[in-house]
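Lecture 7 notes: from sequence to structure.
We start with the chain below.
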Amino acid sequence: MPVLRKTEFTGQITWLGHVPAGSGLQAVPADHLDLGFGGIAGGRHEGENRASCVRVRNLYPEGTEIRNVRQLTILSEEELALIAGDMGMDSVSPAHLGATIVLRGIPDFTFVPPSSRLQGPDGVTLTVDMENRPCVLPGREIEKDHAGFGARFKPAAQNRRGITAWVEHPGRLQLGSELTLFVPDQRAWAP
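Predicted structure tokens for the same chain:
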């Protein structure tokens, strides 16, 4: 029996982008992305390894070399609409959030289980790391273009910020393509 169970859920790619290396958080929209084992070539989060950050400071001193499981940021179109509504905006640009992929069609997306897979038609496969908790950085990007709204991002994005992921199998992503969700076939942790 497979350890990963194919679900009935697919997410259609409605937005793609990348954050160039050496830049801030703002993503540049794209109609396709070629992904290697290190993520997006020339991207801010490219690499099989990375320096540890505040998110794992209880494990390592900041700057320790660790595996890069934050190569990609994946968001839900439906959750973005809820964030925008709570912020009092018509929409929130995925570019302001440093997004790589926006998907439509997978419910409760921010909470898909860690180690789930999203697989594209050519076999490109992304492994879910975990929920991408909201921080103040996207709010700063939003504030640049929408004065007075940036501080509203973090509370509005709580439980809706999407996930981080890494490339398990390289391939190409294209606007309009679908990614199929596979989840670990195990019971929930119950200590």
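Points to note: The chain has one domain: 4-184. Helices lie at 77-87, 137-145, 153-157.
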